[in-house]
């Protein structure tokens, strides 16, 4: 191993062998030793590939962080998270996806669409066309590339995934069997296999089982979110978890906040970063619609990503990204929301 892999191996080995109780002098000596060897002594940073978000987060997600992504159903939480994973592995990093909602072939379809759009832009093949290519039973084209021949960006997307796909690990997870311990083992296995710590995505948090749990859903969710935070610190990785919302909060025209997430107050206090998605049309102050009727359709094409909590940087920040749902993605170049939004109160530590 050389370069980043060698540095990562040394860091992980040191971390695993270090005693839990150390004097500050020992920490200072260890830090100085890393710096003398030309290694980083601070947190590792995984850029998300969404430029406005990375700027707000001072570079991206950090090792040891727990990041929650919440919002209404069908607004693109998984699409945005998958796009982040794609951006990570394309940038020569590693990632692990624990998918409790989708099988591996469905994930592959989405990633081909995202990659094709990164190559060919809005003219790229749509997600529905990719699914048709996967599902066609009587096509003479036998390979995936043959089935996507003649599409805009499809063949090139498959070729790109072949180049870096070995760094993206997809765990088809079960709400019965894929426990917190199984998640930990899989992350450690991927780290050892790739020689670098991965960005971890759990889709979604409320699906993670807790064996022998006899309490309420609130107690079970609290256990899961606390343990995911422990895993992020223990393994030195960022853990991104998609979080479902309470059914009562799924009301059109209502802004969803962190307290609308399903399960436990721990969802507000344990994570380092909380990102909430809302449809811009639903949460923009209504005077922008009353006096500018043409705005309505334009606003429907955007989501607002609110940074409700950020322990390492700016919070109470509203960013917007354009939907490209026909390609299962968002435009990565976002911007700060200029219009007034409803319900400006946010959670703070």
Q: Which features characterize this protein?
A:
two-stranded antiparallel ribbon; Rossmann fold; ten-stranded mixed sheet; alpha/beta; 14 helices; 16% strand
Structural description of this entry:
This protein has 349 residues and is of the alpha/beta class. It has two domains: 1-42; 43-336, Rossmann fold (3-Layer(aba) Sandwich). 40% of the residues lie in helices and 16% in strands. It has helices at residues 3-17, 24-36, 51-56, 77-90, 104-120, 127-135, 144-147, 154-164, 180-194, 217-235, 266-269, 280-283, 287-290, 295-299, and strands spanning 45-46, 61-62, 66-70, 95-99, 168-172, 199-203, 239-243, 273-279, 302-310, 317-324, 329-330, 335-336. Strands 3, 4, 5, 6, 7, 8, 9, 10, 11 and 12 form a ten-stranded mixed β-sheet that branches. Strands 1-2 form a two-stranded antiparallel sheet. A hairpin with a 6-residue loop joins β9 (302-310) and β10. α5 (104-120) packs across α8 (154-164). The longest helix has 19 residues, at 217-235. The chain is globular and about 60 Å long.
Count of DSSP E strands? Answer: 12
Number of helices: 14
CATH topology of the largest domain: Rossmann fold
CATH superfamily of the largest domain: P-loop containing nucleotide triphosphate hydrolases
* Total count of domains: 2
Distance between the termini: 41 Å
Helix content: 40-55%
- Major β-sheet, in short? 10 strands, mixed
Q: What is the CATH architecture descriptor of the largest domain? A: 3-Layer(aba) Sandwich
β content, as a range?
15-25%
If you compute it from the alpha carbons, what radius of gyration comes out, rounded to the nearest whole angstrom?
Answer: 21 Å
Tell me the series of helices and strands, N- to C-terminal.
Answer: HHEHEEHEHHHHEHEHEHEHHHEEEE
Class by SSE composition: alpha/beta
What's the overall average pLDDT, rounded?
87
Low-confidence stretches: 344-349
The CATH class of the largest domain is Alpha Beta
What is the overall silhouette?
globular
């Amino acid at each position: 191993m050389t370069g980043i892999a060698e540095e990562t191996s040394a860091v992980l080995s040191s971390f695993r062998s270090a005693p839990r109780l150390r004097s500050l002098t020992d920490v200072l000596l260890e830090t100085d030793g890393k710096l003398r060897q030309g290694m980083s002594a601070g947190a590792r940073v995984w850029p998300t590939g969404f430029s406005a978000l990375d700027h707000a987060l001072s570079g991206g997600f950090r090792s040891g962080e727990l990041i929650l992504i919440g919002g209404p159903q069908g607004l693109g939480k998984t699409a945005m998270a998958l796009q982040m994973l794609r951006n990570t592995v394309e940038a020569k990093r590693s990632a692990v996806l624990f998918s409790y909602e989708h099988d591996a072939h469905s994930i592959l379809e989405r990633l081909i669409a995202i990659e094709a759009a990164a190559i060919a832009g809005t003219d790229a093949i749509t997600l529905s066309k990719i699914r048709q290519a996967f599902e066609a039973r009587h096509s003479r084209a036998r390979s995936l590339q043959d089935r996507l021949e003649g599409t805009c960006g499809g063949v090139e997307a498959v070729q790109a995934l072949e180049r870096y796909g070995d760094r993206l690990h997809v765990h088809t997870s079960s709400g019965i069997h894929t426990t917190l311990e199984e998640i930990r083992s899989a992350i450690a296995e991927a780290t050892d296999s790739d020689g670098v710590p991965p960005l971890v995505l759990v889709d979604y948090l409320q699906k993670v089982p807790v064996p022998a749990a006899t309490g309420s859903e609130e107690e079970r969710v609290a256990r899961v979110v606390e343990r995911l935070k422990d895993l992020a610190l223990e393994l030195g990785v960022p853990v991104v978890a998609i979080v479902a919302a309470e059914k009562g909060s799924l009301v059109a025209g209502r802004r969803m906040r962190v307290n609308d997430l399903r399960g436990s107050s721990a969802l507000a206090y344990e994570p380092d970063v909380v990102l909430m998605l809302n449809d811009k049309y639903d949460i923009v102050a209504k005077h922008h619609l009353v006096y500018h009727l043409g705005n309505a359709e334009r606003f429907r094409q955007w989501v607002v990503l609110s940074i409700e909590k950020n322990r390492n940087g700016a919070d109470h920040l509203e960013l917007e990204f354009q939907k490209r749902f026909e390609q299962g993605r968002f435009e990565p170049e976002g911007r700060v929301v200029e219009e007034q939004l409803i319900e400006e109160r946010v959670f703070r530590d």
